Task: structure prediction
Amino acid sequence: MVRRGLGGLVGIATVLLDDGLAAGRQGWLGRVDARAKLLGLLSVLVATTFLRNLGPLALCLGAAWALAWFGGLDMRRVALALLAVPAFTLALAAPAAFNVVTAGTPLVVLCHLGGGHWGPWRVPEFLTVTDRGLFVAARFALRSAACVSLASVLAAATRPQDLFKGLRGLGVPAAFVMVAAMMTRYLDLLLRSAEEIHLAKLSRSLGGVGVAREQAWAAAGMGELYRRSRTVAESVAEAMVSRGYTGEVHTLRQGRWSWQDGTFVAGCLAFGAALLALG
Amino acid sequence: MDKVFDFRGVSFAYPGREPSLREATFEVAGGERLAILGANGSGKSTLLHLMDGLYFAQSGEVRAFGQRLTPESVERPPFGPLFRRRAGFLFQNSDAQLFCPSVEEELAFGPLQMGWKEEEILRRVGDTLGLLGIAHLRDRPPHGLSSGEKKKVALASLLILSPVVLLLDEPTAGLDPRSQGILLELLDDLHGMGGLTLVTATHDLELLPHISDRVLVLGEDHRIAADLPTERALGDTGLLLSVNLIHAHRHRHGAMVHSHPHQHTRTHDHAHGEGKDHLH
Result:
């Protein structure tokens, strides 16, 4: 299970970081400047978090998918990110649908609880799904789906390196962006090291050795991973100093915006404002 | 030829450990091709780090381009930036050297730190990528490149600064034979055309004739065991045996079992007596 998990993580990191798969090269959305995409889509995303009604939330979700479709993105990639939403949302939002969490008019009676108290909590007579609870759960699910869709449209339409450039262009401190870029850069190296350590252990194992031994091995593996990470980190610092880094980050400037970039941002800002007006 | 490096009785130890370099004294002239040869852990990488002003001598003195290397001198203008531009260090682990999100930014990193104009940087990025035949990698993230491509990008990130000396730490380690060949030809061209000084740390005896005219041999006691021309170093079996670069072990020829010093990667002939000389 650990091997499959690590293998899966390496695969996901490879897919996410592989510029060849980034749909940023496809369609007009990919050609929009990273700063414009960041500014525009993040403004819609922020507006989404303030919405309280289901209609505007559904509209936002639909708009995100329409943007992905008409923007020429790889819809499978956007959909893949959305797969995580139901599991995440169900775990967090489902309890809100019941009367034990959200009071309201009962819509469906699920079972008889008998009333009384359980510790400091009052137990209702029946476990029911309430109208208010259902609304709260649906709002949470829709908001999550809309936000994840907007974020995956941004990620699918922009290569990681352009995303970091975009962040710098929007005034995020260069040192912060550099650290974030390095974390992304070395993520797959870290995962590959973890996989190697695990495979090295597997190749010398003959079946189960007991929980205590497995725990000891896991701790030793983490220690070795930390040691390797530190070694790489020290070498990276040396490589930076060797090429003239003295503690102040200097980066390339960004190109100018085109009229398409400006139009995209204006459109996103107008859409976000319209969503807020709809509530 | 002007002296590029001048080491006088240099010793260095990592905190809490035995010295990894003892009393090293030697000079490197401009345009030279020097190999630092030694077994694993003999202090080759430490020596390169000292040459690049990443570590500093705990006793003795290191001079580069006539200036003493100290933590202050390598940071303070005008010598600091000039030294960083003139000395390029190719790390053994390319992943550690390529830390930027794209190849273009990787090449631009050094010139940006030097305060070059952006138009000039972008022009030089294009020229350098073209020189190494990797212009198609310009927008790629380094983590997705092959080992050979990573090594070329790492080299390009140094060459863009037009260095006077290249410090190469096991440059062919982990490369397939074709990539090794391409890299060696490239280094040969750089030395031949540009008069670049090459200092290469390696334990690969096969590599020596291609990258060096002179060899500094480090012993397992972390002292310089010899400083001599490459051909003489390769022919000195006793020296190579004493510094753990070749070995002797038993092997069998039919019914006859014998042992003699050798390395597995080099052919050699030897005598058994009784007219049974042969080639390995």
Remarks:
- The longest strand of chain A covers residues 106-112.
- Chain A has a mean pLDDT of 83.
- Chain A touches chain B through 32 residues (CB under 8 Å).
